[in-house]
Write a structure and sequence with these properties.
This protein has 161 residues and is mostly helical. It is 78% helix and 0% strand.
Length: 161
């Protein structure tokens, strides 16, 4: 008795394969080997690409990631509020659902983040170089560290009133 995919089904109990079945199995094994080799080549190329783009690619990816996380959170939060008429911050289960929706949406759009970061990286690199020469910094890394410290100090600043 043959299964839907052309092989022998479990019910037949016959473990003997016919010639077409053996040929089919050999072709499947060859396809798997080829796919593994191709996957290794593609993944190696993808790991080298961000390394070539450097700091600008990391910053661009962070920008895209921050934008998508924020937008998915806002859409889920406002959508829940519109449907139920309640603030989801008061309901921990709703808040967990919103965070899960935000995380899922971010992971689904990850290929677009990488593509967008690759497209935006040259512009960010150009901007970093321009600011670096204007401020006479030895490396763009100093600019990133200064930006991080500025953001941290703004977030930790407390109103004296």
């Amino acid at each position: 008795m043959r299964s839907f995919f052309g092989g022998l089904s479990k019910e037949s109990g016959d473990k003997q394969f016919t010639e077409p079945d053996k040929e089919w199995l050999v072709n499947i094994k060859q396809l798997r080997r080829l796919a593994r080799k191709k996957w290794k080549v593609i993944s190696a190329e993808m790991s080298r690409k961000p390394a070539k783009l450097g700091l600008a690619a990391v910053l661009a990816y962070g920008i895209f990631d921050g934008i998508t996380y924020t937008s998915f959170f806002v859409m889920a939060f406002l959508g829940y509020e519109k449907v139920t008429g309640k603030n989801p911050a008061a309901n921990i289960q709703a808040l967990i659902g919103i965070v899960l929706l935000m995380w899922t949406g971010n992971n689904v759009t990850r290929p677009f983040h990488v593509a967008g970061a690759a497209a935006l990286a040259p512009l960010i690199d150009k901007g970093l170089r321009k600011i670096q020469t204007t401020l006479n910094l030895p490396s763009p890394v100093y600019l990133v560290v200064c930006w991080q410290e500025l953001c941290n100090s703004c977030l930790s600043w407390k109103n004296p009133g």
